[in-house]
Write a structure and sequence with these properties.
about 35% helix; 6 helices; alpha/beta; Rossmann fold
Length: about 150
């Protein structure tokens, strides 16, 4: 199987993990950043649940590509994920956060001219105090391995 991350990780890449680790599966993005930071060539940013606070840091990097990682409600089975491109992201309003993905992405695109992608993973549970579900833990390991492999290719 072709590693889907190879094209996304070409050139200078910023990976932004969005989510709240106190809310079970919603913390997927920051947990992925924790596993990748310092282990791949990409700049890895844990933006928590306030990615708008990191637009300056992201744009300062002048990336060729930006990969946003977030839990999204898209009708998949928990732990299933897909890569969305900008046109798919702005049509949907399925993020688990208050910030409009459309506004965030439009701003980043205007400021960086980068290719913008979102890794959207279907959460099982986004309740406070819950541990991440097993299906997302498994996906976390698989995605971490695939990104590391693509980054070092």
């Amino acid at each position: 199987m072709k590693n889907i991350f190879r094209n996304i990780l070409k050139g200078k890449t910023v990976i932004v993990g969005i989510g709240n680790i106190m809310k079970s599966d919603d913390g997927f993005g920051p947990r992925l950043i924790g596993k990748l930071k310092g282990k791949i060539k990409a700049v890895c940013i844990d933006s928590g649940s306030a990615p708008e606070n990191y637009v300056g840091k992201i744009t300062k990097e002048q990336p060729d590509n930006i990969l946003i990682v977030d839990a999204v409600h898209s009708g998949l089975r928990p732990g299933e994920w897909r890569i969305l491109e900008k046109k798919d992201i702005v049509k949907s309003g399925f993020t688990t956060h208050d910030l409009s993905p459309h506004l965030f992405i439009e701003y980043l695109e205007n400021e960086t001219k980068a290719g913008i992608y979102m890794l959207g993973i279907e959460p099982r549970n986004v309740s406070f105090g819950e541990e991440m579900s097993d299906s997302l833990k498994e996906s976390l390991e698989n995605i971490t391995s695939a990104i590391k492999e693509a980054s070092n290719a």
